[in-house]
Amino acid sequence: MVVIGESTRIRGVSHIGGVSRTRSFSTGQKLIMSGPFAHVRNPLYIGNFFLSTGFVVLSNVSHYFTAIFILAFFVQYIPIVLWEEENLKKVFPKEYKEFFDNVPRWIPSFKKYDSGSEKIKGDLLAAIKSEKQTFTAAIIVFSVLMFREEIAQFFSQYF
């Protein structure tokens, strides 16, 4: 799940670029409707879902915690997605309406949406560079999970 999530994120970032890292109102210069965005409107969030849920599953916590985590994930992301959709409707009224009507929000479609507009060729190298922080966090979390017994022993012995 972790690999699927990060792969999905990299593919999405390769098409949308650095605008995916902003925390303020920013839609970029054009509406991205190619690559993974031709199958689902929120590939980065789907990538986040698989990446983080994969770590929850790897941590071997109870099924109840996993279910609560999944619920909390959507409680967090649904308002963000709705806010972004409102912004996109304002900035790209005609294009976004058609995109909204033809591309699902959460569950990717096998049918590729063809907007007829310019196709963006993804920049994989730039996406990988952009994902440095995500890679670093994933490696740290994975390491902690793999060596949690040793870490717990160390802290109980010295602290």
Structure overview:
The chain is mainly α. The protein has one domain: Four Helix Bundle (Hemerythrin (Met), subunit A) (Up-down Bundle). Helix content is 65%, strand content 0%. α1 runs antiparallel to α2, α2 runs antiparallel to α3 and α3 runs antiparallel to α4. It starts with a helix and ends with a helix.
Q: Which residues form runs of ≥5 with pLDDT under 50? A: none
| Straight-line distance between termini | 35 Å
- Strand elements, count: 0
Average pLDDT: 88
Per CATH, which architecture?
Answer: Up-down Bundle
- At the first level of CATH, what is the class? Mainly Alpha
Describe the structure using short key phrases.
159 residues; mainly alpha; Four Helix Bundle (Hemerythrin (Met), subunit A); 65% helix
In short:
With 159 residues, the chain is mainly alpha-helical.
Helix and strand arrangement:
Blueprint: H1 2-16, H2 43-58, H3 63-91, H4 93-102, H5 124-130, H6 132-146, H7 148-158
Helix pairs in contact: 1-2, 1-5, 2-3, 3-4
